[in-house]
């Protein structure tokens, strides 16, 4: 009976997530609904069916205006921040008022909103930046409350725009209480199409069915803004005008979707000013009781962006991407406890533990094989973890999630597993958590050989136990692991394509990248852009005046 219950549970969950939805990357690359007219009817979300703008043009899209659009090949190096800002500013001024008189000098520098508690506040103009990310180790553990060790990278999304909070605009009692948002925005991926959207506090995520999930890239934007409506005073309207640009490669496992969400969120927070997180701070005591500790903008931002992706885009992602993009410090990796959202900065040792081991750098290689986490295999893994957890709970009721299980627990519960697949999924999660905690310690000690061994073991587990790798990625990892000076290499990100991350002696990095590009092309016929990366800063605001980062958050 218990076995039957588990099978039914798995079937129900798989049915729920069997939606063949367009991912963020796929929506960018083949968005079918574009409007090139300036006479646009807003899409209204909530209280009825969603009305889309008329389709006047179908275009193949890519986030970076600098990318090779014909081949859909991301840039080998991150674009300069100035070039991204200039692209965003030019695009903004193409559609929106260039008059800057409503921005006082304080707003232009600090991004804080001024004004009274009633009427229309002074507009705030802001530049928000959110990076992509690479996960060194700790894969497919975040949605089971486990440990991850990611860092932010120089590739990023930039949001440039202005907005204000209009207070007490309702003409009747219902309107007086209803919080709402109006968005007008344009992206460098579609510079001739202006998106105009609306949502109210009572809005629901777009409805979807197992055969038709309407989640274009604009839904990531709208879903994120929606999370901030509770911060508004009753009856207030959040009015936003902005442009979006960036260079995070799409569908590559570097978190292009989370980068977009967090950039939009940070921009909204700048416009909200003192209103930002007001509803969350009122619930601070409850959050502490749930183990989340004191209120933190970075934690709250991450949770809101994750909720937007889970509920509005049908993607059962964990918290890792949004958390590291929100909280990265710029000079270290971050060990994240995905249950409590505790962040522990983790710096690589300044010297090698052994004088014989050259100091390493991190190389990312893009397989150019795209993946989807909105449907297909990723949500299946989420469901399989739930079934495996049920089996473990038969032996130990204190195991609330796979994060609580040791490798020994998994072995002891093997006979209770529904099938060998559930056992393999649980085995990966339990061993990956142990590898992640050890990798943090060895990074700080400077034992690069041990870190590399853990990375390679992680890839083997991803390939054999979690089964989220693919032939092309395995080829990349094998090429790297057999090259002189390489300590370890593995798949990074959700899998089913995407990127690899390799720890390699600094003096060997350039030769490794050239070798990977040529060998991968020879074996697969696919280009493989590579780049050396290092920890970068998380989401932040830039000064409108000189484009320098504002005060550290």
A few lines on this structure:
GO terms for molecular function: ATP binding; galactokinase activity; metal ion binding. The protein is α+β, with helices and mostly antiparallel strands.
Outline the secondary-structure elements.
Elements: H1 2-16, H2 24-29, E1 43-45, H3 81-95, H4 105-110, E2 119-120, E3 124-137, E4 147-167, H5 173-177, E5 180-187, E6 190-200, E7 208-209, E8 212-213, H6 217-226, E9 237-246, H7 256-272, H8 278-282, H9 284-289, H10 297-312, H11 320-327, E10 333-337, E11 342-346, E12 360-366, H12 377-395, H13 407-412, H14 420-445, H15 448-464, H16 471-481, E13 486-492, E14 499-505, H17 509-524, E15 530-533, E16 540-542
Parallel strand pairs: 1-6, 5-9
Antiparallel strand pairs: 2-4, 3-4, 3-16, 4-9, 4-10, 5-6, 7-8, 10-11, 12-14, 12-15, 13-14
Q: How does this model look, in words?
A:
There is one protein chain. By secondary structure, this protein is of the alpha+beta class. It contains 17 helices and 16 strands. It has helices at residues 2-16, 24-29, 81-95, 105-110, 173-177, 217-226, 256-272, 278-282, 284-289, 297-312, 320-327, 377-395, 407-412, 420-445, 448-464, 471-481, 509-524, and strands at 43-45, 119-120, 124-137, 147-167, 180-187, 190-200, 208-209, 212-213, 237-246, 333-337, 342-346, 360-366, 486-492, 499-505, 530-533, 540-542. Strands 1, 2, 3, 4, 5, 6, 9, 10, 11 and 16 form a 10-stranded mixed beta sheet that branches. Strand 10 and strand 11 form a beta hairpin. The longest helix has 26 residues, at 420-445. The chain is globular. 52% of the residues are buried. Residues 1-74, 101-118, 209-214 and 285-292 have low confidence and may be disordered. One of its GO terms (biological process) is galactose metabolic process. Belongs to the GHMP kinase family. GalK subfamily.
